[in-house]
Design goal:
Number of domains of chain B: 2
Largest sheet of chain B: 4 strands, antiparallel
Order of helices and strands of chain B: HHEHEEHHEHHHHEEHHHHHH
CATH architecture of the largest domain in chain A: 2-Layer Sandwich
Number of helices of chain B: 15
Strand content of chain B: 5-15%
Helix content of chain B: 55-70%
Radius of gyration of chain A: 35 Å
Number of strands of chain A: 17
Shape of chain A: elongated
Helix content of chain A: 40-55%
Radius of gyration of chain B: 28 Å
Number of helices of chain A: 14
Number of domains of chain A: 3
CATH superfamily of the largest domain in chain B: Multidrug efflux transporter AcrB transmembrane domain
Structural class of chain B: alpha+beta
Largest sheet of chain A: 6 strands, antiparallel
CATH topology of the largest domain in chain B: Multidrug efflux transporter AcrB transmembrane fold
Shape of chain B: elongated
CATH architecture of the largest domain in chain B: Up-down Bundle
Distance between the termini of chain B: 36 Å
CATH class of the largest domain in chain B: Mainly Alpha
Number of strands of chain B: 6
Oligomer: heterodimer
CATH topology of the largest domain in chain A: Gyrase A, domain 2
Chain lengths: 513, 381
């Protein structure tokens, strides 16, 4: 019985060659997961209510200016909840005009049921709210991606998750300065330039007292970085949206500062405000904290400087986040895992030790139990390992600590296919078949069992993949690759080796199994 | 070598004893879990976890007392691989709902672990053992050219990576840091007696979603198995496989409770893998049942239990061998894989043993019970 086994070996060598080619050198090609390399894993919750409120507040401004244009004087306009605008004191004789303004400008996005006793309520439609939330998460994701990219972190993972899709997972391998990165990602970086009305006051209460305990609607009190509180105008003269660029620079004392430039629209607004308010203070507000409040000495056109007590690094990072845009909503860290590089290195050492030991134990066991056929199985096993690493390198899939566990498990489980076949061959031999017929029968009859058994494990691994986060996904990936590889090595490679050894010979009396 | 030579064991004779034993384990496990809850890790209940390395051995009781005094009454402290200088400290959520509460908790714990002298030093200088490579570089760059600062910082970081903690400036000298930068570092920094290897924080809202997802993933995996087996074999075989898998999951959970294994993400992974592994064993036996079916039908006095028993016996050596190699590999992982993976390895060890037992005493036993009441209806292909 002479068979053509040459082409089988060509295929086998090709698989080996490709696996080795893809994984060399391993230190570059095998991507390590966070838990092995060290790094930072964050889950961020986008507070989408913020975005809804912000949209609502913008609309309040629009409504005010529209009513002003029409000459309708109303008592009070304010926000309620997160998505409602309340208008009070609509004059009885102008109700129809008010109605007309709302109907012409607001009804597409707002629910409105008319003026009742001089009072009207507008509420954002649920569809609009959910689209605002959706956009906020998308925008936050993009902003964070830009910040991480500009900061220069290699191979970050940034993606959405969560039942409502309002969470963002950020994985930053190799980061070992969590404090700086946290600030980089989390700061809303909403830059606003607001005119100062009064201040500074030592406490918030003191500021309030001056206004008789209740601040007019168009003013607000903001804390200043360092000292006290200011009363400023609620409406910002210019915001970060009007920013063209920002960079780290030095102030007149040669201390680190951030210089920014405004776009054409921003410059026009800025010029108007500064020219009309020479002598007054302009507060530079970042995330609702006043960084500084310089005097306006002359008309400024399109550039400004933020001075504060920055370190050079802080100035760099602030310029970066201003440049990359503000977040549309605030962000809460709901999960944070920082793995130091020393733990990662430790895990690699231990994982490697356990894998090698498992490999040796299983190989010894197979050789002792199946003799020459056991050697055949160990060759298949080693090839399986090669394929796993080759595939990991090819797909740029990260090797994680659970991933190593998956490999160890594969070492133990993948010989199952060999065992199934060898036991079958033994049975066929015991039933009186000739050695070669027994080998053929063993392989063909064990095949369906192997397929069924392994496919079900893959089904479980796929569900695991969909459940897990980073490291667990790594486990599922190595398990799936390992199972697929084991079908190939046990069924195809082992058979080819048997054929090479026995099928060329004229007469086979006995096989070593 | 051969473990079993033509075994002929009447496994199914003992099926009711097996049912009873399994039922006792499952019911007692469920009762206790329901009453006391599992030993949930921070993945599921939220909280803060720190893994720390001390420069010198520290007694676990001392850490426990210090933490208690600082207000962390329910802190769980665990020595890493029985060492006396490396510990994992777990604190449940405090629930103040403060912004970045976890950072404050982590900071406070580190404060507790420091010696009084260290705390004084920390007020004046930076702790070299808590600085990142980048921060070390920045400090060195203030006194030396940048490229040198980069190279030295990397050397220091590598040493820390290897030893987990820097015990003395002498170690840095031996690692090749010249005298000038060493003196500079001595002046600007000090060596604390504790270094932080990992900090993990999970918010309370995460755990709830995760628990939900874990249960869902397990149920989906079981359903997937049911459909596959029902399609490849027969519906009854699918049902019996799923009962077997549910049994495996519940028995493993009971052991997780009784052995007080920390229940975290990895354990969920282990349980799902056990589902995948255990079904292997079941399928191998079912496959043999299917194969023996034609011969069985030809016989006059058909004994279904004998068919099952024969099939189990014929595949017995394979079942034992595969479990054996898997257990060998897992044992290596359990003993040498390190603390982080230990719970996973232990759970898998239990699961593989349970899965092997159940492929004989659950999946086939259920078919046998069905046969007793309903005959061969639905059992033959």
């Amino acid at each position: 019985m002479k068979r053509k086994v040459e082409w089988k070996f060509i295929l086998i060598f090709l698989v080996i060659a490709f696996s080795i080619y893809f994984m060399l050198p391993p230190s570059e090609k095998i991507k390590l997961g966070l838990d092995l390399k060290g790094g930072m894993h964050l889950v961020l919750q986008v507070v989408t209510d913020d975005a809804v409120k912000m949209e609502r507040d913008q609309e309040i401004l629009r409504l005010k200016s529209l009513l002003e244009d029409e000459g309708i004087k109303v008592g009070n306009i304010y926000g309620k909840g997160i998505a409602t605008i309340v208008v009070e004191g609509v004059p009885a004789d102008r109700e129809s005009d008010f109605d007309a303004v709302i109907k012409a400008n607001f009804v597409s996005n707002w629910e409105y049921s008319g003026v009742v006793e001089g009072k009207a309520e507008l509420t954002l439609k649920p569809k609009v709210i959910s689209s605002i939330r959706e956009n906020a998460v998308e925008e936050a994701l993009e902003t964070i991606r830009r910040r991480v990219d500009e900061f220069g972190i290699a191979e970050p993972v940034i993606q959405r998750q969560g039942i409502k899709g309002d969470q963002i997972v950020v994985e930053l391998p190799g980061v070992d300065n969590p404090k700086r990165v946290r600030a980089l990602i989390k700061n809303t970086a909403l830059l606003e330039l607001k005119l100062v009305k009064d201040g500074p006051f030592p406490t918030k209460e003191e500021a309030l007292k001056k206004y008789g305990g209740k601040l007019p609607e168009d003013l607000q009190i903001l804390p200043s970085k360092g000292k006290g509180y200011y009363v400023v105008e609620r409406a910002a003269a210019v915001t970060g949206r009007d920013l063209k660029t920002a960079r780290r620079c030095a102030d007149k004392y040669n201390l680190p500062a951030v210089c920014f430039q405004l776009n054409a629209e921003g410059a026009r607004k800025f010029e108007k405000v500064t020219s009309q308010n020479i002598g007054r203070q302009l507060a530079i507000v970042l995330d609702n904290v006043i960084e500084s409040a310089p005097n306006i000495r002359s008309t400024i056109f399109d550039s400004g400087i933020i001075e504060g007590s920055f370190t050079s690094e802080e100035a760099h990072d602030l310029a970066l986040i201003l440049r990359t845009g503000s977040l549309p909503a605030s962000i809460k860290i709901i999960e944070e895992r920082t793995i130091g590089p020393s733990l990662g290195a430790d895990s690699i050492r231990k994982g490697l030790k356990a894998s090698i030991l498992a490999l040796i134990l299983v190989m010894l066991f197979m050789i002792v139990y199946y003799n020459l056929a056991g050697v055949n199985a160990t060759i298949a096993l080693l090839m399986n390992m090669l394929i796993i690493f080759g595939a990991l390198a090819l797909f740029r899939a990260a090797l994680t600590l659970p991933g190593i566990a998956g490999i160890v498990l594969t070492i133990g489980m993948s010989v199952d296919a060999n065992v199934l076949i060898f036991e079958r061959i033994r049975e066929e031999l015991a039933a009186g078949k000739s050695p070669l017929a027994a080998i053929d029968a063993g392989f063909s009859r064990a095949f369906t069992t192997i397929l069924d058994a392994n496919l079900t494990t893959i089904i479980a691994a796929i569900f695991l993949f969909s459940f897990g986060t980073g490291p667990i996904k790594g486990f599922a990936v190595t398990l799936i690759i390992g199972i697929l590889a084991s079908i190939f090595t046990a069924v195809f490679v082992s058979k080819a080796i048997f054929e090479l050894i026995y099928f060329g010979k004229r007469k086979v009396e006995k096989i070593s199994i | 070598m051969q473990l079993f030579k033509r075994p002929n064991i009447n496994f199914l004779k003992a099926k009711y004893i097996a049912f009873f034993v399994s039922a006792v384990i499952i019911v007692s496990g469920l009762i206790f879990i329901n009453r006391n809850g599992l030993n949930y890790g921070i993945d599921f209940v939220g909280g803060t976890l720190l893994q720390v390395k001390f420069a010198h051995p520290v007694k676990i009781d001392q850490i426990r007392n210090d933490l208690k005094e600082a207000g962390f009454k329910s802190a769980i402290i665990q020595a890493v691989e029985n060492s006396s200088d490396e510990y994992i400290i777990r604190v449940e959520k405090m629930g103040t709902g403060e912004e970045e509460e976890h950072l404050k908790i982590a900071k406070k714990i580190i404060g507790v672990l420091m010696t009084p002298e260290e705390k004084n030093l920390a007020a004046q200088k930076q702790n070299l053992n808590l600085l990142s490579e980048e921060e070390i570089r920045d400090i060195l760059a203030q006194g030396f050219p940048e490229e040198k600062a980069i190279a030295w910082a990397k050397k220091i970081a590598d040493l820390k990576k290897k030893n987990k903690i820097i015990r003395s400036f002498e170690e840095l000298r031996e690692a090749g840091i010249p005298k000038a930068p060493l003196d500079y570092l001595k002046e600007k920094t000090f060596l604390g007696t504790v270094s932080i290897m990992r900090v993990e924080y999970v918010g309370p809202q995460v755990g709830k979603i995760l628990r939900h997802k874990a249960i869902l993933a397990t149920i989906w995996a079981l359903l997937g198995m049911l459909i596959y087996i029902a399609f490849r074999f027969k519906f009854l075989y699918g049902i019996s496989s799923v009962l077997t898998l549910a049994h495996d999951v519940l028995v493993t959970l009971a052991f997780i409770y009784f052995l007080n294994i920390e229940f975290n993400l990895q354990i969920v992974a282990a349980i799902l893998t056990i589902v995948g592994y255990s079904i292997n064993d079941t399928i191998v036996v079912f496959d043999r049942v299917r194969e023996n079916m034609p011969a069985f039908r030809k016989r006059k006095e058909a004994n279904f239990d004998k068919l099952l028993n024969d099939s189990i016996n014929q595949t017995l050596s394979r079942t034992v061998l595969t479990s054996g190699t898997t257990l060998l590999a897992l044992l290596a992982l359990y003993l040498f894989g390190g603390e982080v993976i230990k719970g996973f390895a232990l759970t898998m060890l239990i699961g593989v043993i349970v899965g092997t037992y159940s492929s004989i005493y659950q999946s086939c036993a259920w078919l046998s019970v069905w046969h007793k009441f309903y005959g061969l209806k639905g059992l033959l292909k």
